[in-house]
Amino acid sequence: MNDLNISRTPDDIKIDVRHIEFEGIENKPRYWHGDNPILTHGLNAASMFFPQGEIFFIKSVQNFQNQITDPKLREEINGFIAQEITHSQQHDVFNKDVYKQGYKDLQRMEKLVHRLLAGLHKFGPKKLQLAVTVALEHITAIGANVLLQNPILMQDVEPKYKELWYWHAVEESEHKAVAFDVFQAVSGNYWLRILPLVVMTITFIPSIVVLQLISLRRDKLSSDAKKMDENKALLEAVKPALVQLRHDYMAYYRKDFHPWDLDNRDVINQWKKLYQETGKAAV
Ligand SMILES: [Fe+2]
Ligand SMILES: [Fe+2]
Question: Which element (helix H / strand E) includes 241?
Answer without folding.
Answer: helix 239-251
